[in-house]
């Protein structure tokens, strides 16, 4: 029974920062064992959604249930327990700059377990081997390329063998080779470790290649959802514009402005 | 229009008290994280190295020079009254009561406090603190509490070293260069500096300053606006606020201790 319920259930989520409404009643299900992508233009609050799922932010209304536990109702202890079963890869990697690659991956293991040093070492080397960076164990974060830093962050995210990993913009700003590596790793780790993955991204091709299910967010709503194939066939104009990267469509090329003619002739003030 | 300055004043007042409240809540959370450090002394020791040991050099050099200046100035004044034998007392009292705790706290803010703020602020700006939270590690306990405790413990030790070195600085100038009697320098000091009134009060001052300086440094770091500009502002604020707080508190403490 537990296997069939979605790992993450978001219901009627409303979240606002000050006056600005970021989510206006969204519903999402993240199926166990799947790679689910959350896509949308920059500034739609995709990262915010991950922080809400991880309990770093709290919704104004609505609920977020992760593995049967209501994230926004949990006490701090239970929340931390739940987080031990979640991994997260930040866009920047968020590696601890005063620790080596090895120590970064060892960090969650050392913080949460009392394993003997030899076992910690074996575990860390296994995780680093999985992302192909065992040879970089002794390097410091400032010596790594952006792509390598993200792979180390990935190794760290899976260090405690979590049930779920959240990837925040894993493909942004990568060269084609490291992009290919990250795409392959997300897919392989998900299968090999039996994870559930949530990928937040706006890179259509890469995401569509590995996602089992995609949610498209815009303007605080889920505008479309489905498997990658079904989305390509989607009747929604918005989805077509986003997936095909068209410059004009439901999302207008021009930022809202007064009539161009009036602006030129009228000499209106820009304030 | 007329109400604008009034509104601004009100806004500034509200934001000041809001920050003060946040700072106090933060302090409670930090202190709550301190007992857990008993089981992980390594974290504190590492921070005591960067906060305390690395500040030693500036403390030693400054202490020596301050002591030498006191020796020189004290000699000039005291010799007018033929009381240059009391130089040891003058130097020692000035150091243990005032200059040791105060100057150490000011130097500490510039050398260690600013570094603590910048480090924590940059950790916030680069999502390291957020990353820790997601790894179910509380940054208040793992990052803030050890740094706070290290700063708090280091300050009285640094102030004691400052005063001790200063006494020797005064000795070099007074006895070595200006010919004050060596025996008089030490014996008068021994006879007139009271353990309870002078030394203890000086230590209490440096403990209070250590608490305040460490609190301001870690709070400003944690409360940073996570941008380059935010970190630079927070670092400046640490130095300025610590200096003001230390000098203000010094007057209050002096009045309480020596005011009669």
**Mean of residue pLDDT of chain A?**
87
Number of strands of chain A: 10
SSE order of chain A: EEEHEEHEHHHEHEHEEHHH
Measured as a percent range, the helix fraction of chain A is 25-40%
Tally of contiguous helical segments of chain A: 10
Low-confidence stretches of chain B: none
Q: Which shape of chain B, going by the Cα principal axes?
A: elongated
Low-confidence stretches of chain A: none
Features:
heterodimer, A: alpha/beta, six-stranded mixed beta sheet, globular, B: 260 residues, mainly alpha, 9 helices, elongated
Structural overview:
The complex is a heterodimer of chains A (271) and B (260). Chain A has 271 residues and is an alpha/beta fold. Chain A is built from ten helices and ten strands. In chain A, the strands form two sheets. A six-stranded mixed β-sheet of chain A has the order 6-7-8-3-9-10, sandwiched between helices. Chain A has a four-stranded antiparallel β-sheet with strand order 2-1-4-5, with no helix packed on it. Chain B is mostly helical and 260 residues long. Chain B is built from nine helices and no strands. In chain B, α3 runs antiparallel to α4. The longest helix of chain B is centred in the middle third of the chain and has 39 residues. The mean pLDDT of chain B is 93. Classes of the chains: A alpha/beta (271), B mainly alpha (260). At the A-B interface, α2, β6 and α3 of A face α5 of B.
Concise summary:
The complex is a heterodimer of chains A (271) and B (260). Chain A is an alpha/beta fold.
Could you give the topology of this structure?
The complex is a heterodimer of chains A (271) and B (260).
Chain A: E1 8-17, E2 20-30, E3 35-39, H1 46-53, E4 61-66, E5 69-70, H2 76-83, E6 86-89, H3 101-112, H4 117-130, H5 146-157, E7 164-168, H6 176-192, E8 196-201, H7 204-210, E9 213-218, E10 221-226, H8 228-232, H9 237-244, H10 260-266
Parallel strand pairs in A: 3-8, 3-9, 6-7, 7-8
Antiparallel strand pairs in A: 1-2, 1-4, 4-5, 9-10
Chain B: H1 4-33, H2 41-51, H3 56-80, H4 87-125, H5 128-134, H6 139-177, H7 182-192, H8 195-222, H9 228-258
Helix pairs in contact in B: 1-6, 2-6, 3-4, 3-6, 4-6, 4-7, 4-8, 4-9, 6-8, 8-9
């Amino acid at each position: 029974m537990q296997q069939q319920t979605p790992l993450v259930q978001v219901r009627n989520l409303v979240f606002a920062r000050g006056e600005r409404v970021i989510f206006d009643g969204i519903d999402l299900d993240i199926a166990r064992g799947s790679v689910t992508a959350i896509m949308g233009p920059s500034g739609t609050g995709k990262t915010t959604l991950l922080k809400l799922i991880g309990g770093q932010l709290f919704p104004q209304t609505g609920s977020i249930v992760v593995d049967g536990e209501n994230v926004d109702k949990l006490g701090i202890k239970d929340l931390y327990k739940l987080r031990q079963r979640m991994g997260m890869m930040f866009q920047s990697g968020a590696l601890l700059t005063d620790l080596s690659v090895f120590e970064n991956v060892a960090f969650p293991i050392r913080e949460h377990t009392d394993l003997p040093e030899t076992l910690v070492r074996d575990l860390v080397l296994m995780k680093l081997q999985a992302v192909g960076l065992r040879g970089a164990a002794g390097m410091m974060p400032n010596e790594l390329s952006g792509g390598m830093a993200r792979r180390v962050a990935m190794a760290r995210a899976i260090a405690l063998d979590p049930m779920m990993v959240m990837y925040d913009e894993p493909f942004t700003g990568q060269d084609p080779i490291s992009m290919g590596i990250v795409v392959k790793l997300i897919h392989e780790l998900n299968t090999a470790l039996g994870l559930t993955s949530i990928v937040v991204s706006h890179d259509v091709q890469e995401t569509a290649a590995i996602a089992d299910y995609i949610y498209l967010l815009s303007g605080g709503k889920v505008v479309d959802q489905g498997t990658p194939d079904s989305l390509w066939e989607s009747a929604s104009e918005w989805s077509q514009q986003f997936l095909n990267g068209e410059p004009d469509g439901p999302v207008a090329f021009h930022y809202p402005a007064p009539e161009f003619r009036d602006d030129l002739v009228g000499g209106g003030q820009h304030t | 229009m007329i109400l604008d300055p009034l509104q601004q004043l009100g806004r500034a007042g509200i934001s000041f008290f809001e920050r003060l409240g946040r700072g106090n809540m933060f302090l409670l959370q930090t202190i709550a994280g301190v007992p857990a450090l008993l089981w992980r002394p390594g974290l504190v020791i590492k921070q005591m190295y960067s906060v305390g040991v690395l500040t030693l050099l500036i403390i030693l050099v400054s202490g020596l020079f301050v002591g030498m200046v006191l020796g020189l100035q004290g000699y000039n004044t005291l010799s007018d009254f033929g009381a240059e034998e009391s130089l040891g007392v003058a130097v020692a009292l000035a150091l243990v009561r005032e200059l040791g705790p105060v100057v150490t706290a000011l130097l500490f803010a510039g050398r260690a406090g600013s570094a603590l703020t910048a480090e924590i602020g940059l950790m916030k700006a680069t999502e390291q603190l957020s990353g820790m939270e997601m790894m179910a590690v509380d940054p208040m306990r793992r990052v803030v509490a050890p740094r706070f405790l290290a700063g708090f413990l280091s300050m009285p030790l640094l102030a004691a070293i400052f005063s001790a070195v200063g006494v020797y600085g005064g000795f070099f100038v007074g006895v070595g260069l200006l010919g004050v009697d060596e025996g008089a320098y030490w014996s008068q000091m021994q006879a007139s500096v009271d353990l309870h009134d002078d030394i203890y009060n000086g230590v209490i001052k440096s403990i209070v300053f250590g608490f305040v300086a460490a609190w301001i440094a870690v709070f400003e770091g944690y409360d940073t606006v996570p941008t380059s500009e935010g970190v630079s502002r927070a670092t400046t604020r640490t130095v300025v606020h610590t200096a003001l707080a230390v000098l203000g508190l010094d007057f209050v403490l002096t009045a309480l201790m020596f005011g009669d």
